[in-house]
């Protein structure tokens, strides 16, 4: 077992590749997070606190990447309502380039209602209004010009963006044609148990995807195999990199033929909010992947960003910049146990 903190810090201090340029196609909305007892039919509950937080899986990833220093273009659609105007200001202030965001006149922006408790000890109750995202399409954008200037294109939310999911294969095929990388996170949704719903994902999107992000449940539904170490070996074998997030158990990452296992950062404070933690993970993983750090280091630093995020309400407040990542990992001892296993204490 070898302590590798100094090695990681050295890599972070000597990043040689230029800041990455990334195109993101996906959702942007607000999460309205209410601290309350569980909702029950026919019963009124009292809300003790609430927040409005910049959200959307694509919004979280875009914000996280921009905070780390990447040049990020977000392609999405908002309404001309107050939420839409506020979203443009807030995502722009996060450092994301907004010239690819389309404003749909006379339309309402998407939003998500989240009911939870302060401790996150029970499952969140979530309801999403799709609004302008329901018909989000790559036809709205001059994506060819943008992709020609990018290092990677990322998309997400297979179930919430029905029109876009059918178009992602064309977008990714174009990306592969011009030799830029592709990344995809299908995210949670109501269709993982429906094999027909997954056909486009498995047969038309994944064959053109370089980096695939999943959680443990999603990996099971894709393969029918409960053991994620076994399932990660067969998920999209032509993809260079597959990552399975295991929650409190850590992360599995398969790069080419090697598998890495990394446990989570044991945080001292209570988890405040897990919303956006997976997206913050993806933002950091993609950033350091494009800056050519080894896969196990990308995974460790992505875990750090996720661990920081869950200590704040909302999915963006805890996201780290580059100095923040360096300082965060200094609080821990990180060991290489051999055979791709990383232990964080």
Could you walk me through the main structural features you see in this protein, from its secondary elements to its overall organization?
With 345 residues, the chain is α/β, with parallel strands linked by helices. It has a single domain (2-27, 57-107, 135-344), classed as Ribokinase (UDP-N-acetylmuramoyl-L-alanine:D-glutamate ligase, 3-Layer(aba) Sandwich). It is 32% helix and 24% strand. It has 11 helices and 16 strands. The strands form 2 sheets. A 12-stranded mixed sheet has the order 1-15-16-14-13-12-11-10-9-2-5-6, sandwiched between helices. It has a 4-stranded mixed sheet with strand order 4-3-7-8. Helix 2 (57-68) packs across helix 9. The longest helix has 16 residues, at 162-177. It is globular, with a radius of gyration of 19 Å.
Tally of DSSP helical segments: 11
Top-tier CATH class:
Alpha Beta
Give the overall shape.
globular
Uncertain regions spanning at least 5 consecutive residues: none
What radius of gyration results from the CA coordinates? Answer: 19 Å
The succession of helices and strands, N to C, reads EHEEEHEHEEEHEHEHEHHEEEHHHEE
Instruction: Report the CATH architecture.
Output: 3-Layer(aba) Sandwich
CATH topology category name: UDP-N-acetylmuramoyl-L-alanine:D-glutamate ligase
Strand content: 15-25%
Annotated CATH homologous superfamily: Ribokinase
The number of distinct β-strands equals 16
Report the structural category: alpha/beta
